[in-house]
Amino acid sequence: MSAVRFPALVLFDLDGTLLDSAPDMAATVNRMRAARGRPPMALEALRPHVSKGSRAMSAAAFPELGGEVPGEMIREFLDVYEQELGRHGEPFAGVAELLAAIEAAGSRWGIVTNKPEYLARQVLPKLGWDSRSAVLVGGDSLPERKPHPLPLLHAAQAVGVDIADCAYVGDDERDIEAARAAGMHSVVALWGYRLPGDDPLAWGADAQAATARDLLDAAAWRGAP
């Protein structure tokens, strides 16, 4: 692999990109199912829904709702998840090396997620990222969330880096839409969570990476600032 020149600021989605949080989510929905006398849901059945958020995961765990998840169930999900957060998941393979390489190159990295900020902030210390991440923007930090570009634009401004010197990496179509709207180099994390019908090659990203380690190759950043 050739030497990598990273953008000045590399922003990442959290769940499904940096962190394999599906085991935490499975523990959450299975506590909810157990409370209703239901058997556990298989991790692999839930995994494709994780990047779609708490409503989508609740809908998948309780298909009889027909996608109409009541607000009290969302609140229950978030309360239970707060107790399970960081207990079962771990960073995806290669993420530790990637973040270290970004830092060693003199660039910075941060997180822009649709997860509520109070939950994201609880995750970071468990991973040792709270003092390393240059910025954290949650799904409720601002009036808009991804796929709107505002969270990405705000993150760049908070760190003091020009948009032209930023890139965004995410596993969901909303991530790529937000990056394109913000004018940032976009990379699809193909190792993340996707529904069977999703076609990441049709999202219009600037690059795709099969694993986090692939981002240690300069080819992944070709065309980036």
What features would you describe in this structure?
The structure is a single chain. By secondary structure, the chain is of the alpha/beta class. The chain folds into two domains: 9-21 and 90-221, Rossmann fold, CATH 3.40.50; 22-84. It contains eight helices and eight strands, in the order ββααααβαβαβαβαββ. The protein has helices at 22-35, 43-46, 54-61, 71-84, 95-104, 117-127, 150-159, 173-182; strands at 9-12, 19-20, 90-91, 108-112, 136-137, 166-170, 185-189, 207-209. It has a six-stranded parallel beta sheet with strand order 5-4-1-6-7-8, sandwiched between helices. A two-stranded antiparallel sheet has the order 2-3. Helix 1 (22-35) crosses helix 4 (71-84). The protein is globular.
Short description:
The chain is α/β, with parallel strands linked by helices and about 220 residues long. About 35% of the residues lie in helices and about 10% in strands. The protein has helices at about 20-35, 45, 55-60, 70-85, 95-105, 115-125, 150-160, 175-180; strands at about 10, 20, 90, 110, 135, 165-170, 185-190, 205-210.
- What Rg is obtained from the alpha carbons, in whole angstroms? 17 Å
Largest β sheet strand count, sense and barrel closure: 6 strands, parallel
Tally of strands: 8
Structural class: alpha/beta
Tell me the count of domains: 2
Strand order of the largest sheet: 5-4-1-6-7-8
Helical percentage: 25-40%
